[in-house]
Structure prediction request, 291 residues.
Amino acid sequence: MSCHISFASLTVAAIWSGLLFGSAPAEHQASRGSAEPDSGVVVQGGVIDHDTSHPVPGAAVSLAAATAEVQGRGTRVTDDEGHFLFRNVPEGAYRLTVTVQGYHPMTDTVQVSAKDDLELILPLSKDPIRLEPIVVTAKAAPPGFRDYEKRHRTGSGFLVTREEIEKRQPRFLTELLHNVPGGMVVPTPPHGYTLLLRGQCRPGIWVDGVRLPDATSIDQLLAPQVVDAVEVYHGNELPVEFGVNPCGGVLIWTRMGTPQPADEASGSRSQVIGNILKAVGIVIIMLVVVR
Prediction:
C-alpha cells in the first residue's frame, strides 16, 4: 500500500519543519549533500515516523523526472537525523518516492520553483512485516516413550538424557553406563561392551519399545548420535508395560524411531566372519559325509 501525501500537505509541513530539524548551517548542509556545485535550487527535508515524529534514518529518498523537460536527480539516503539533501535541482515537476524497511512507501509529485529552495517533512506510516506461516510437523512418539518423562520425574531407574550424550560425546553407549548402581560394564568380543546388572545378570534390551531378544551388546546395536535417551532398570524395577524380566532391562529411545547400526564397518566385519564360519561348517559336513 502506498502512502500518498499531497503537495499541499508537503508545503504546510515545510512551514513547521524548522521546529523538528532547525536551520542547519550552510557548511553543515553542504556536508550532507552530494558533490554538486553549490548553486541552483536546494530540495531538502526530513523523513519522520508518522506516529512518534522521530527521525527515520536509512530511508531512500528519490527524485525522478515527472515530465520530459527535466531529468531525475537520483536517490539520497537519510542520515541519523532523518535528513536528506538535493542540490542544484532544476525547475520542474518531480516524482518523489520514499522507501525504507518497516514502513509503507510514500509517492507524490513535487513542483520545484526556480526561485525558492524547498524544504519538506515526509511522515511515514509503519508497515508490519508479514511472515509466512511456520508449519511444524511432529513425529508420533513410540509406545512407552510417552511415559518416559513421567518416569524421569519420579526418579525411578537410571537415566541418560540427550543433553548428557551431547555433552560427553561418547564413542560407545556403554561409556555412559559405568555409573549404573549395581551394574558393571564388561568387554564383548569382537566389538564393544555389555552391561551386566546385579549377579552378573544380562538385562533385556528394548529399542523404541520393541524387545530385541537376541541382542547382547548395546554398542553393536546403536551409535550414541542417534539415541535420545537410555533407561536402565533392575529386575523388579522394570515398568510393567515392558513385561517381567528377572535381570531387568535397558530401554533405548532413538531420535528417529528406528534402530540404526552403531558401526557399519564392524557390522560388515561380523557378517564376513559369519559367512566364513558358515563356509567352514559346510566343508566339514561334506567331508564327514564323504567318509
Q: What stands out?
A: The chain is about 20% helix and 25% strand.
